[in-house]
Amino acid sequence: MTTINENTPNLTFVIGEEKRLSEIIGRGEIEPLLRSAVRAGVVRALLLDEDGLPLCSAGDEAPSGGVSEIRGKLLVEGEPKGILVMVCGSGNPERSEAMSMLVRDAIQLIITNNLKRMLTTELHTSVVQESYEQLLETNSRLRESEARYRDLSLSLEHKVEQRTAELQQAYARLLQQEKLAAVGSLAAGMAHEINNPNGFIRSNLSSFRRYFERMHEMLDYYQLLISGNTPLHQLQQDTEQKRRDLKLNFIISDTRELLNQSIDGSDRIARIVSDLKSFSHVDETARSDADLNVELERTLSVLAPQIGPGCSLVREMRPLPLFECNPALISQAFLAIIQNSLQSRPEGVRVRVASRVEGGGIVIEIADNGCGIPQQNLSRVFDPFFTTREVGSGTGMGLTVAREIISAAGGGIAIESGEGFGTTVTIRFPIAKERNV
User: What is the pLDDT of residue 365?
Assistant: First the structure.
């Protein structure tokens, strides 16, 4: 709206003059948001102006098939002035939509604040030339405008906070799903390990039940002879014959073996359950001082069912100082990394698990002789849902969760790999005295 002062027609001031989107918001304000969206998993992100021309873009210029677009309008004074376009992959549409809405709300908030600042500047330049009465009237309109934009700003900030919270909740659900997937994998292996001793324990008990029937039959026969006042010589002959017929000598010998085998099987089941319980830290508090060598050994114990006969496991663990952390989460991170190594090749896999103190910190190395990671994929291994396995063979969240856990504990993780040369994962944790706890 343009207002002309009738008393001084040579003076004009402009409120809400039509402006292009490029005049309101610059590339330097947009580009960091678009790059953040790409790092979070969006294939391509770009902002189009009112003429449909791109102001700024980030991501893959020529995305491959299997993608979709999410478009969101950007408004200036209630009028459409631009479009935010998000090109997303086929996985997790809810996450992609939440990310698009979050970036759109952030850009909209910048546009609103910039426009408010521009309008304030224009008004100030014009008002200084007006009379006192015009100044009072303009000031009143400015206050109304400020109140309106303040309400709009608060509303947008609330929406951004709400969308951010929803995105965090969605991400937390993804982490929980990965935990459940890890538990399911362990449960399948443990069920197999427990079924083996449980199977021969049950078989031994079935045999013992048959042996017991024969022993009971022998006792009944012996009681019958005694009650019939059978002479001692005849009693000895008849009972000895019955003993041979029932094969009691073999039964007595085999029963000892059956009981020994059953006790060993029961002890084996107890050890498996104990290893799983120790790995899960179900009876411990969230944070405690842990020996990371012990956590590695517990992880290897629960992964024993997945270590095939052709797999070789090398331990090179040196004494480590105690490290304050959540042991259950650290074990889950170790589990995801070692599982990847065990599955790095179909057969003949060699996994080396090493630990040491180096450079004032704790270093954990997990290396394998697997097929390795192509160079073009190495920068994406920590991205959510990224996996090189066949569809249905992995969630693509294992390393993502591992990095989150290690980072939360104050550590860092790095991967070195070459196609055909295996992979080495290096984890570093600060020693307690150097940590801010």
Answer: 94
